Amino acid sequence: MNDATETLDRLLEKDVYIIDFLPKQVPRENDGQFWDVEYYLLNSPKQDFIKERFVNIILKLMCYYHLVILWNGWIDKPNPQIIEEAVSEIMDHHSGTLNCLFPNEDMLLVLDWDCLNLSVYNPPKETHELYRQIAWSEGMFWRKFA
Hints:
The protein is an alpha+beta fold and about 150 residues long. The protein has one domain. About 40% of the residues lie in helices and about 20% in strands. It has helices at about 1-10, 35-45, 45-65, 80-95, 130-135; strands spanning about 15-20, 70, 75, 95-100, 105-110, 115-120, 140-145. Strands 3-2-4-5-6-1-7 form a 7-stranded antiparallel sheet, with helices on both faces. Helix 3 runs antiparallel to helix 4 (about 80-95). It is globular.
């Protein structure tokens, strides 16, 4: 799976869109409490709310696209239970990254434990509407990363 690692590295340099908890980026000089809210959602029982949405989004995408994940080695067409176990382990241990490669679309989705979003690298234009609909179905938002 050396080709998959090379593809992953290449895609990490491409345009990034996100499936986010918020509809737009919070400005740095803002009087809101983004950091407090983010910390709370990632470190309280509300974490399950975010975890469930991330799992559902990845599972929905698996219905449309060939998926290869980097989780204890490369796994081609992972069982849905592996997705749930990986996301749960990452979120529960507050550590780790799940790389989801969609090789036929030349696209990468990344889940990092400390974010309220999923990063999507190099999404083809024809996937944007589907991503928007899937994000919306989980109470999240699809937008270009600023």
